[in-house]
Structures are given as structure tokens and as C-alpha cells.
Amino acid sequence: MQRLKIFIIGIRAGSEEVVSKEALSLLASCDGIFLTRRFINYFESLGFKDKLYEFPASLSELPDSIKSFAKKIADNCGIAILATGDPNFFGITPFLKRKIPEAEIVVKPNVSTMQEAFSRLNLNWEDAAFFSLHGRQKDSLLGFVLKNHKGFIFTSNALDVLYLLNLLKYYRLDDFKVYIFENIGTVNENLTELSYPFLLKKPVSDLNVVIFVRNETLGSYPGIGLEESLYKFKSGMITKREVRCNAISLLSLKAGDVIWDIGAGSGSVSIEATFNPIGTLSFAIEKDEEAYQNLKENIKTFSAFNVRPIFSDFEAVSDVLPKPDKIFIGGGKIKSTISVAFEALKENGVMVIALVSVDNLFETLSFIKNKGLNYSLIQISSAKNQPVRKSSIIKSANPVFLVRIDKNPTAKN
Prior knowledge:
- The structure is a single chain.
- The chain has 13 helices and 19 strands.
- α12 packs parallel to α13 (358-371).
- It is an alpha/beta fold.
- The radius of gyration is 28 Å and the shape is elongated.
- The protein has a seven-stranded mixed beta sheet with strand order 13-12-11-14-15-19-16, sandwiched between helices. The chain has a five-stranded parallel beta sheet with strand order 3-2-4-1-5, with helices on both faces.
- The termini are far apart.
């Protein structure tokens, strides 16, 4: 019975020793060598010309090419797959194991492109996070960069770099530094360093990888429903902890979500929301100057740098801010605010509104009814003990209404 053995060998582009002596010995023993076009000339010069087979146009076709080649070999078949760097690090190994489970696979790694890139910056990478855009959706990229202080991104082509730069610029992430490595390990190697607004002066090669480093480091998880005493706030301009916890829960946040916190006050909702989960981004909009200064101070206290403070009346900035996935309204003129905010909200987005007055509740429910929207309403009534001499009493707080509105495109309008 024929036995298929696959050697996945890491090669180091641009190095004098592209492969080790051990790897050269393995290549000599193999029946066929599969590799990308850019390495064919080099391995032809080593005397392997008759064994070389170029990767198919689509990587998904490679397993069938390997199997087809193996069928032509009468006895045991040995095949080498040449891949840059470490094939086990965001590389081809898991793919081939999944597609050719019957094969015996041996991996011989080399220095990875990631290691090469970090070494160029003399930068450690044990605290870095890693992300690959090869054949993957880009939807989770925003959440990834928001979570991490330092990251490495494998890109597919130049368009991936442009997507990343536009993402950082669009969401006003001005505390990032981006390093673009082109053709690393070759005579055409080039490094471009960019800061906000991330403007490129020339096209980027398709053969590239990216490192980003954030100027600020996010604080550790502070919890949810924190004591009001931990925040600096103007009297009456903080969302109570019981309301805060429920509001964040109703927002149904996930990493990569963009929040508008309208009438942010102390910023307590924004701060706790961006840690629940880490990787959400909040634009905290506040027009009261004293409250805004408190908001900025609270952001520094918690190192909640995924909160972006905006000193403005909401309607003055609603057209220029990045469109939100979620909105929390904790203050402001409900009648005008809710209409403008809802129009800006993305499809399938969620809006949560905290209401104290019956008039504002009526305005909100009237808006919902006129739009034919899906919504839920809860009332939060809390009571706390209050010391009185040697005893205590239970003091009730004013009830607060939380309304969640779902911008479902199937809802009746």
C-alpha cells in the first residue's frame, strides 16, 4: 500500500541560507517539490529543476495537485512543500492536515516573517497579538486592534493594508503607529512608518506584513457596576450603577462594536461598556464643559482609551462621527435626539435609552409607535440602606425606565 509522506519545509527569503542542510537533504530524497513561483529560480540553481512543481493559482487546489502527483508514484511517495518561515504559525500545516489526513506530515520550520519584522524594529513580540487576513473576513479586524497594545497582521495583498489604514483613520484611532514591511528578506525590502492620519506616499507591494503599536496601554478590566465614588462627576450627571449594568447588558455588545454615548456625563457607561467586552469603541458626547472635563479625567483614571470624548452638542456632530452599531442615550433633548440617532444607527443596531421623566417616556414610546419598531421596556426601582444614628433605613431611588429599540429592517415602518 502506498504511503504518502509530506515534508513541510520553512524557507527564509533573502537569507544566504534559505534552507538548512538538513532540509536540503530531505529535498534530495523527495519525489516532488511544490513551491511558489518566486522561489523556482533559486531551487533550480540548486539542482532540483526536474522535481519542482509550482503551486496552483488557488491554494485550495493544492491538496488535489499533491494527491494527483502521488498517484503517479509507484511506491512510497515523498513530497516537499516549501513555505516561508514557520509553516505552523498562521501557515499551511493545519490546512494540509485537514485536507490530506491520510498523509504523514513532518514540519521543518525556519525563522518566520513575523520574527524578521519584529527584529527589524528591535522590538520584543512575546506580548504581541497576531491576526491573519489570508482568506478571512475583515469584520473582526477593528475588534482586534482595539483589544491589543501591539499586534502583527499577515496580509493577503496591498488592499489589506489600505483597508487597515482606512479603518484606523475612519474611527479616529490616532494613538496607533503602523509599520508596513514590504518584500521582507529580499533586495526590495522596504519599511514604511505611519502615524495618524496614515497617509501613504506611494503604492504598497502585495508582499507585505504589518506591525502596529499603540501609544497608550489599556487598563485592566475594572468590572461592571462600579461604585459612583470611583468616578469624578458633576452632581446628577452619572448613570446609577443599577441602571448602568442593565443598560450595558441591553446593548448586547461584542468586540468591534461602535457605540455612541449621547449625553455621556461622567462617561461611566462608555468606560464600563468598552471593557465589557474589550474591543468595543465608544464616542462619548457631552456638551457640558465641567462634565466633559470629568469625562476626560475618568478615561485617564481607568486607562479606558477606547472611549473617545467629544465636546459638542450631539446634533452638531451626528453627521461626522463614524456610524454606530449601538447607541446609549442617557441625557439630552429626547424628542430631537432620538430621531437623529435612530437614523444614524446601522441596520440591526440597538439603541438603549434611560428615562426618568414620564414626558420623555411618552415621547420615546410615541416615536416607537410611529416607526413601528421592535422594542422592550423595563423599569428599574432600587432601594439602598442609609445609616441613621446606630441603625439604618432603606431609601428608595426614583424609578428609571430603560427602553431598548432594535433597528430591524423587517420591522414595519
